[in-house]
Write the structure tokens for this entry.
Amino acid sequence: METLHIQTDWLDKLLPEGFPIPSSTLLTGPGGSGKPLIGNFIAATWLRQGGSVVFMSLQYPDHSFIVSSMARITQLNLDDYKDKTAFIELDVHLDGMEKQKERNFKANVVIPTIWDEALHYACEMLPNEGPGILVFGSALNLLLFSPTYEQKILEKMKLTLLDTLTCSYLFSTSSTAKAKQIAELEALADNLISVRSDRASQKIQIKIERMKAVAFISDEIEAPFTPETLQELKCIADQSRKRIIPLVSKI
């Protein structure tokens, strides 16, 4: 099994043999617990080691939030990796997707066929070098609020997690709502990482539940994020729920 060392002390402590590639990973935990922050470190290392990353962060209104978050959390400037990154932005008002020359484009990935089309289009833009292509999708549980596509998009997510022939997948989902459906995703991912925020200490706790074909430490450890960063993330999560769920609920 090929592996990638995250080059972050607290993650390398949990993964002494490295992160398995290719593989599918689910970061799961309550809303606002810091799951995308953990994913940012994996994505940053992926790029630094010569790979490509497709970002599909549904909680952000546009990709500039991803750029600023990565710079602040991981000290990585995504502008230095323009040829290795693509951004899929959720637009529920579209019937399909808007193809552009730029590497950021809008797509209504609530619709399962558009999910496939958008991921294929984004991956085709990028070189498949180093550790390959990583698709990093966050707040994917928001798609499950569609009364028309809830079960169909859930099945599409499942199939995606099972197919790592051409890409690796890193998905984060809140377990606060749609817990039954999220449990189905948890059962299928190669790697499962649980994240929670401790209210008393206002710190993020991370625990590896499962890893594909590599040894790992199962201790729960504290991720070194400040309470201010965690609070900011919680505010973004709350805002995204208020903004996106009513729109998706109409589809």
Q: What stands out?
A: Residues 2-248 form a domain with the Rossmann fold fold (CATH 3.40.50.300). DSSP finds seven helices and eleven strands in the chain. Helices lie at 9-14, 35-48, 64-74, 112-125, 150-162, 179-188, 227-248.
